[in-house]
Amino acid sequence: MTTSFHPFVSWFQANGGSLNSEYIGLTTFPASEGGRGAVALRDIPESHTLFKIPRSLTLSTRTSPLPELFGGDAWRKKAPHGHGLDEGWTGLILCMMWEEANAGKWAAYLASLPSKFDTPMFWNEQDLAELKGTSVVEKLGKEDAERDYREKLLPVISSRKDLFPPHLIPFHYTLERYHIHGSRILSRSFCVEPAPSDASDEPSGTTQNHDDAMDVDVPSDSQSHPAATRVHDNDGDLSVDQDDEDEEEEDIVSMVPMADMLNARYGSENAKLFYGANELRMVTTKPIKAGEQIFNTYNDLPNAELLRRYGHVDYLSLPASLTQGSPNGSAALGNPGDVVELRADLVLTAANDRIYSTAAPPAQNVSAIAAESQRRIDWWLEMGGDDVFVLEPPSESLLPEDLVSLVRLLCDDDEWRKAQDKEKPPKAKKDKVVLEVTKQALLKRQALYEGSLEVRCYCRGFSFRNLTINVF
Ligand SMILES: C[S@@+](CC[C@H](N)C(=O)[O-])C[C@H]1O[C@@H](n2cnc3c(N)ncnc32)[C@H](O)[C@@H]1O
What is the Cα–Cα distance from 387 to 402, expressed in whole angstroms? Predict the structure, then answer.
């Protein structure tokens, strides 16, 4: 371990954390490989505990003393009775700011975290233009974050000068610090489950899938329920239910010292975080050889999400099954977890184009066609249909069933009638019309890209073999 880790490791151990330093070493990789991370110091078997973190050492709005000092009700309740600081990330950001300003329990940990980020949140307009057409820019949420800073955080700090002395505001409570702490949460937080009621500190479960972000996943992402998850999503609520009685039952977005030292790489996960009653444990999920890096992967996210949340992308050798169809066979590097997100409005436009071009002249009425399609898509959304479709390899499952169902609903009047009668969207039966409309929608998707970066995946199969779609 290099000396730069000593202050953090000493703080961690002094506060009840335990690190199996015979087996795991903290080290520094080149920035392009993640900077700080951890390696195996000797061969480590599967199911070996690498380190333990007491729950009391995780930092969240539940463990920080600030919410109670502020007044629990005023903290939690929504305006006009309170500040709604249990919703979104503003409360946790405020706790982090306050810890730093007051040299609190977590100050040494926070001081060890990066304060400079390469994520698109900090890019200039010119660089962001390179991402045009990707989902990254629309998901950045910079304006929302800045509105929360102005409308939620500033009124809170100005209402309690005893807790937030004015002379500290220019140092610790600025918009810049708000973004830095927000980026720390986005790139490093976990969504920590409450302590199990049948409380044992033995690691529970054998799988831990993450979901968003260092992911820990959320069941709705159709991951198996993780033993611990990091938050990917921005983005989100710290707790779902604001009912005070249920509060202790909710997962909570938390900073987890030491667990957030591990880097990630597609398909390389060899350690996962497991919850116990009083502590969290990072446990190996496969044998690791001496010298190998220890990875806690964030759910094998596509590059767009890696870039947005963490500021890096995976650029690995792609299996031949994914590069089939490449025009020159050169695109053998990328992220095997990349996907294409196809918005339903592009499907709608492609369907309308087809309906128009195949209609006999009296029916070739653009506004009537658009109005009818709008009626159908409104029905689709009312029935709980998605407005974004995710296309992922392998090709056998390339076309999501709900995408096929929507195209049939839009393009086939019989299917539309049947769907209304049965109150159920059409079956996902692929036919020529479905494939043609989908291909046109994908071409429209491809045309949205304007940047000069070329990161591609090859959508194979069906009738549009060789169609290339930039995904990043
Ligand atoms: C949970 S932290 C891991 C510890 C981090 N490397 C550090 O120095 O504190 C996640 C961050 O590490 C970096 N990182 C993780 N995996 C990486 C990878 N495969 N390539 C490049 N950077 C990576 C990214 O900056 C990401 O936001």
Answer: 10
Residues facing residue 289 across a β-bridge: none
Q: Which ranges of 311-427 does DSSP label H, i.e. alpha helix?
A: 320-323, 344-358, 366-382, 401-411, 413-422
- Mutate which of 255, 310, 335 to test ligand 1's pocket (most atoms within 8 Å of Cβ)? 310
> How many whole angstroms from 439 Cα to the centroid of ligand 1?
37
- State the Cα–Cα distance between residues 262 and 37, nearest whole angstrom: 5
In angstroms, what is the span from residue 214 Cα to ligand 1's centroid? 10
252-254/190-192 β-pairing:
antiparallel
Domains of the chain, first to last? 1-314 (3.90.1410.10), 340-470 (no CATH)
Three-state SS at 38? strand
What is the model's pLDDT at position 335? 87
Radius of gyration of the chain, Cα coordinates, nearest whole angstrom: 25
Predicted confidence (pLDDT) per residue in 342-373, tens digit: 999 999 999 999 999 998 888 879 999 999 99
Instruction: Give the DSSP H or E segment for 7.
Output: helix 6-14
Please check whether residue 274 is in contact with residue 283, taking contact to mean a CB–CB distance below 8 angstroms.
yes
Q: Distance of CA 322 to CAs 222, 307, 457, 467, Å?
A: 23, 21, 7, 13
d(CA 103, CA 16): 19
Q: Report the candidate in 223, 189, 224, 226 with the shortest Cα–Cα distance to residue 204.
A: 226
Instruction: Give the pTM.
Output: 0.83
Burial 353-383, CB ≥16 within 10 A → b, else e: ebbeeeeeeeeeeeeebeebbeebbebbeee
Residue ranges lining ligand 1, Cβ < 6 Å:
33-37, 114, 187-188, 214, 260-265, 310-312
* Cα–ligand 1 centroid distance for 273 (angstroms): 17
* For ligand 1, atom 5: residue with the closest CA: 36
The alpha carbon of 343 and the centre of ligand 1 are apart by a number of angstroms equal to 30
The pick from 184, 230, 234, 263 for probing ligand 1's pocket by mutation, whose C-beta has the most ligand atoms within 8 angstroms, reads: 263
- 35 Cα: distance to centroid of ligand 1 (angstroms): 6
pLDDT single digits (tens) 382-402: 999 999 998 887 655 578 999
Nearest CA to ligand 1 atom 23: 34
Q: Of ligand 1's atoms, which has the minimum distance to the CA of residue 262?
A: 3
Q: What is the ipTM of this complex?
A: 0.99
Bridge partners (DSSP) of residue 435 are none
Give the integer Cα–Cα distance in Å for 91 and 85: 5
What size, in residues, is the chain?
472
209 CA → ligand 1 middle, Å: 18
